[in-house]
Amino acid sequence: MISRGSEWRKWNLHMHSEYSRENRTKMKITEIFDSAVKNNISMISITDHSNFDALDEIWDIYQNGMCEQGHYSDIVDFLPGIESVSYTHLRAHETLSD
Predict the structure, then answer these.
(1) How far apart are CA 32 and CA 76, in angstroms?
(2) How far apart are CA 28 and CA 67, in angstroms?
(3) Over the chain, what is the mean pLDDT?
(4) Closest by alpha carbon to 95, among 63, 47, 54?
(5) pLDDT tens digits for range 8-62
(6) Against a cut of 0.85, is the pTM above it?
(7) Whole-angstrom Cα distance, residue 70 to residue 20?
(8) Which ranges in the chain belong to alpha helices (H)?
(9) 48 and 82 Cβ atoms separated by less than 8 Å
């Protein structure tokens, strides 16, 4: 039984990497995870525009990458996502899970 009550955690479910097609921010995947650790963000989703090109690299870094505090996967949770643009120019943010 958990006796500490509710917890508030910081999440960022809308981030872009250098792989994003309409991206002005050119952050590398490791920079995104390092930033999340530095800013105490416990859950991230990298939602690049219209592609999953970075997904293999993201999973590899998430599962095997390390920073000074330890393995990324022990510090930050990750949800795969994508930002898509329709022909009507409406944007949709999708977070994908099993």
Answers:
(1) 11
(2) 14
(3) 85
(4) 47
(5) 899 999 999 998 887 677 799 999 999 999 999 999 999 988 888 899 999 999 9
(6) no
(7) 27
(8) 29-38, 55-64, 72-75
(9) yes
**1 CB burial (10 A radius; 0-12, 13-18, 19+):** exposed
Pairing of strands 81-85, 91-95: antiparallel
Counting residues of the chain whose pLDDT is more than 90, the rounded percentage is 52
Tell me 69's DSSP state: T
- Between the alpha carbon of residue 71 and those of residues 17, 18, 51, 76, the distances in Å are 20, 22, 26, 9
Q: Tokens 């525009």 sit at which residue?
A: 49
Q: Is the four-CA dihedral 16, 56, 13, 36 of positive or negative sign?
A: negative
Whether 97 shows a pLDDT value over 70: the answer reads no
